[in-house]
Design a protein that fits this description.
The structure is a single chain. The protein contains six helices and four strands. By secondary structure, it is an alpha+beta fold. The longest helix has 21 residues. It is 31% helix and 20% strand. It has a four-stranded antiparallel β-sheet, covered by helices on one side.
């Protein structure tokens, strides 16, 4: 069964994976349903995801999760259910009809508006965060990767939290550091972070943001 590239393109426009924040069996199922590399000009998000998941080919059997979420993107799959609307208590009828006289109707409307505004003002502000997959490449195979990772994790920024990591072979005995991090969007600039990493010139040749997804 082939993959529905149009639906997949729309889904991956704001996500790095089929579900969750790391590769899973759902990604594997959809990847295998695509017979050849997608056209980057027609489906740029699918192409970016396809190349990223392809780098995990040797680990497909060991990736966690279920393939169930990937079924929604295979040909003939039922469309995903529409997202649930906001809670009913957020949908305040500001201008509900009323059988009373105009003065009483205006008073009730004013009370509803005031209650609605008070409720909105009391809601805490949502802190926008993103989960990022970050890669750091060493100079050569003589670079001490353990020390490289220690140096990277030693970078501290307000709103930055380092997560899981692994070393990924890239050829000729050279490995790169692939590490996950969570950032508060208003506090952390990824450009600034890359500049800080570039300062570790004894270990680092280059760095790259390979995936990013809003939390």
């Amino acid at each position: 069964m082939s993959a529905n590239l149009a639906k997949l393109e729309s889904h991956l426009a704001t996500r790095s994976y089929i579900e969750g924040y790391t590769p899973s069996q759902a990604d594997v199922a959809v990847f295998k349903a695509i017979s050849s590399a997608p056209d980057a000009s027609a489906n740029p998000h699918v192409s970016r995801w396809y190349n990223h998941i392809k780098s995990y080919s040797s680990e497909f059997d060991s990736l966690s999760g279920s393939s169930k979420a990937g079924e929604a993107f295979l040909g003939g799959a039922a469309p995903a259910a529409e997202e649930k609307k906001e809670e009913d208590d957020d949908e305040v009828d500001l201008f509900g009809s009323d059988d009373e006289d105009d003065a009483e109707a205006e008073r009730i409307k004013a009370e509803r508006v005031a209650a609605y505004n008070a409720k909105k003002a009391a809601k805490p502000k949502t802190i926008a965060k993103s989960v990022v997959t970050f890669e750091v490449k060493p100079w050569d195979d003589t670079t001490d990767m353990e020390k490289l990772e220690q140096a990277v994790r030693a970078i501290e920024m307000d709103g930055l939290v380092w997560g899981a990591s692994k070393f990924v072979p890239i050829g000729y005995g050279i490995r790169k550091l692939q590490i996950t991090l969570v950032v508060e969007d208003e506090k952390v600039s990824l450009d600034d972070l890359q500049e800080r990493v570039a300062e570790l010139e004894d270990y680092v040749q280059s760095s790259d943001v390979v995936a990013m997804q809003k939390l």
